[in-house]
Amino acid sequence: MSQNTATEYEAVIGLEIHVQLSTNTKMFCGCQLQFGADPNTLTCPVCLGHPGTLPVPNEKAVRYAIATGLALGCSIAPRSMFHRKNYFYPDLPKGYQISQFDVPICSDGELAGVRIHRAHMEEDAAKNIHVGESGRIHGAGRTVVDYNRGGTPLVEIVTEPDIRSGAQAREWLQLLRATIKQLGVSDVNMEEGSLRCDANISIRPVGATELGTKTELKNMNSFRFIERGIDAEIARQTALVNAGEKVRQETLHFDPSTGSLTSLRSKEESHDYRYFPEPDLVPVAPPAELIEEIRASLPELPLEKADHFENGLGLSVDTARFLAFNAEIGAYYQEVLLEAGADVDAKRTADWVTGELVARIGADADPAESKVTPVALAQLVTMVGEKKVTNAGAKTVLDRLVESGGVPEQIVEAEGLAAMGDGDELAGIVDAALEANPKAVDDMKAGNMKAIGAVIGFVMKQTQGRADGGEVTRIVREKLGL
Amino acid sequence: MSADLIALSAAQAAVALHAGEIDAAELFSAYADRVAGEQIGAYLWREEGNPLVERPADFRSTPLAGVPIAVKDLFCMEGVPSTAASKILEGYLPPYTATSIARLQAAGASVLGKTNMDEFAMGSSNENSGYKTVKNPWDETRVPGGSSGGSAAAVAAGLAPWATGTDTGGSIRQPASLCGLVGLKPTYGSVSRYGMIAFASSLDQAGPITRDVTDAALMLKYMQGKDERDSTSTGLPDEVELPSATDLNGKRFGVPSTIDWSGVQPGVKAVFDAAVERLTALGAEVVEITLPHAEHGLSAYYLIAPAEASANLARFDGVRFGLRSEGEGLTAMYENTRHDGFGAEVKRRIMLGTYALSSGYYDAYYGRAQLVRTKIADDFRAAFNKCDFVVTPTSPTVAFKVGERVEDPLAMYLSDLFTVPMSLAGIPAISVPAGLATPDGAAQAAPGDDGALPVGLQIAGPAHSENALLDAAFAFERATEHMPAPWER
User: Fold this and answer.
1) Confidence of residue B150 (pLDDT cuts 50, 70, 90)
2) Hey, is the C-beta of B92 within 8 angstroms of any chain A C-beta?
3) Percentage of chain B surpassing pLDDT 70?
4) How far is CA B231 from CA A41, B202, B267, B379, in A?
5) Closest-CA residue in chain B for A276?
6) pLDDT tens sequence across A426-448
7) Across the strands, what pairs with A14?
8) Gap between the Cα atoms of B438 and A478, Å rounded
9) How high is the pLDDT of residue A5?
């Protein structure tokens, strides 16, 4: 490397992911969990922190935490402890959060090359709503608190700093989300906050082993923002270092609408949480048989699923991973395959789902919520396979399905989209096309088959796309003796 | 008639009620009238109605048949002012009732009122009440002990046949000793803590303050039990039996040779020595044991308890219930509320506890204190290989004068010298009246001596040994000359 070359930097990224568990009741009391209920209707003396109340752990939440740990390849502590994490805030009724500290329930795992440092159980805080212009506590006219969310069971997953880019973070998080979704332990809905992600980001010269000063990017609520936020922060740090300045340890907020990063607080102001063992709870000591029972009941997880899609169904690596890591789309795809029956072309079906359907409804949408039922798409793909409808015709059918649902066969019928067979009608139209394109005919005869495009275009126009391109080519060759 | 009613112990009253010899509503009124006129600061709230008249069916077929009871203000009761004697909870009406109180009520106890105490159970004299100081009925210039001082004073003054207390480092046993009563701190976990306003969660335990050992057994019987709302509760493995032992044949009582008698009043020592002689006379064998780490118990206790308290009291922030003192912004509101709501001793302990848990100090203070705690528990385990029970004085002194120790927290903390080790070990211990001493504590005294003050004997046993412990205490009580309580005079 010459002296003139600028130092190359690499990013070092670790993620902290909060997952709200989809138990029926809260972590330490019997209150129902339900998103969007009227404020402060799902509370009791325990989750409001009334004097004299005590926490009782939710067994299902412990089960879910163990399942999460096992799916992430973690070891499960035979005896883990709850601790109190002390700080004052109106959304924290007891003045401490019950969390885990030095002995978390899950530790030392790995998912797709990213090591999991730990995954521990804790209770969620309530929700502060700042009434006023800023939408933040500073400058708020008034703050009200909704305690419905307070006490929701959480698993906090902390990775090792094994991620190197925003794109990798996004892709890995999608896999993590799909994995947890598959486990059925959380809704993992980022908009509703049941999956929340913070990123710790630093940069260092390529080849260095020491870590640079890290910043923390808080609470990004979509995969796209996570990727953009991380990339923006990497760029900011790189520019700082290139300008000879130092990165300051701080917590940042990424504003996706402006792409800007603002400082929330510097670490010097950070709390001393005064962790100590929660005396109101006994250690969590899941029997080995319980852990094995949970392990045995784990469903097929996305990584295994990707392998099945790729090697069992013959999909490309990218398509296989896309389907396996995007839980809803993957589940929908499998549903379509099931409806279409054994003879259907899995690859073609995948193309229709990941290509045409996703292009129409968006990659973030759940196809199961669209108007296109798996039965309908299965029927459409089958019709394409049987050449009852052309690709172009099928795309029109899909447009209709996305708009208003329905049955493909009926749409084809109603709109006259049925593919033309190899009958006289098509041969007649081909004749007309050849007649109308003498130059193309000459070119083809001279060996330039590309010229057939003009002829096919003419036929398609005449048939409104119902003709099969392959069939037209066959007839043309036959007629011209090519 | 009223005086006859007051003369009945709780167990005697229950028997008389079941036999139809006395009327439950009259019994309640006899006490309620006395409570209405009380001048010693024992109660913070009193029941003005008469539940036995209003809801007689609730009591008719129950084991306690309506026997009145006083409840320490640390226990939450639905719709009843429950303040832990703190200004920060003034006017607070809990939306639920503590499990132990609900159990006593279900067994037919009818609540007379809530008794005064040291604020959040922090204190040994009841002078730390946020509302008023309690006077010792034996000598109203003296303290009743604490923190369950209101409960002890109420029972000693005939303002209740019995009362619930709570004990974190001696808060049942020490006031029982200073007021000439029986006070039992059960094994940690036997009585549910749900609904007891928390001071130090790993130490807090509810129990009875009563006139005699039989009543202590009776209350424990209906208070104890595993509670699904308290993860640390276990209940007692055996049904609680009313005690019946008449001798102590074959029982071994350990006297710690490690006691430092220099801080113990001679009168207290004399009563203790006489008590040990009576144990021997009852057929017991007295053996010497050592509790090498007990001397560090007080230091460990005054780190662990404040540390837990500093977190337990964080919920009193003015946001959801109790006092709120407004201020400019959130932090000012927190500060004003806690400044106005907490008394000096509570603030002192919150600061001690916060410091002990702070980053960089945790290992040296809280962590080390927990190690000492383990050592003390080990000491007791070893001792119980050599004896069935350990005996000590309950308090190093007789009841002291109001105001005598308020300026000297360390002297106040020494009140718990003998009671704290059992709390740290989580084992049961009972204080039983053992005799009297002169008011200056210089010498033993006899019933009838002018100004004589009660001295208690503490008997401790292994975890879950309550039945044996109550039996031993019962035999000792029978062999001890009756000391008329203030209400009897």
Assistant:
1) very high
2) yes
3) 100
4) 26, 12, 43, 27
5) B357
6) 888 888 888 888 888 888 888 88
7) A200
8) 129
9) 58
- The tokens of A220 are what? 């990004």
Q: A48 to chain B: which residues are within 8 Å by CB? A: 320
How far apart CA A408 and CA A419 sit, in angstroms, is 13
Q: Is the separation of the CB atoms in B207 and B188 below 8 Å?
A: no
CA distance B11 to chain A (A): 29
The residue among A94, A278, A280 with the most chain B CBs within 10 A of its CB, best to mutate, is A280
Task: Compare CB distances from B194 to A54, A57, A93 and report the shortest one's residue.
Answer: A54
Residue A173 pLDDT greater than 90, yes or no = yes
Which residue is associated with the tokens 């009591």? B59
In this model, does residue A3 exceed pLDDT 50?
no
**Residue B19 is which amino acid?**
A
Tell me if residue B226 is catalytic: no
Domains, chain B, ordered by start: 2-223 (3.90.1300.10)
| Joined tokens for residue A223 | 């995969």
A45 neighbourhood in chain B, CB within 8 Å: 94-96
Domains in chain A, ordered, with CATH?
9-294 (no CATH), 300-415 (no CATH), 424-480 (1.10.10.410)
Respond yes or no: is residue B147 known to be catalytic.
yes
Q: CA dihedral in degrees (B123, B125, B130, B136; nearest 10)?
A: 150
Token reading at A19: 């997952």
- Is the pLDDT reported for residue A4 higher than 60? no
Can you give the pLDDT at residue A393? 87
CB B394 within 8 A of CB B458: yes
Distance CA(A164)–CA(A199), nearest Å, equals 12
The reported pTM is 0.89
Of the candidates B82, B171, B192, B431, the residue annotated as catalytic is B171
Give φ, ψ of A58 to 5 degrees. -80, 115
Q: A105: which residues sit within 8 A by CB, 6+ positions away? A: A62, A65, A66, A69, A76, A77, A80, A119, A120, A121, A284
CB-CB neighbors (< 8 A) of B98 in chain A: 52
Give the whole-angstrom CA distance, residue A448 versus residue A454: 12
- Residue B140, beta-bridge partner list: none
Work out the number of other CB atoms within 10 angstroms of the CB of residue B483: 20
Q: What would the pLDDT profile of A417-427 be if each residue is shown by its tens digit?
A: 887 765 677 88
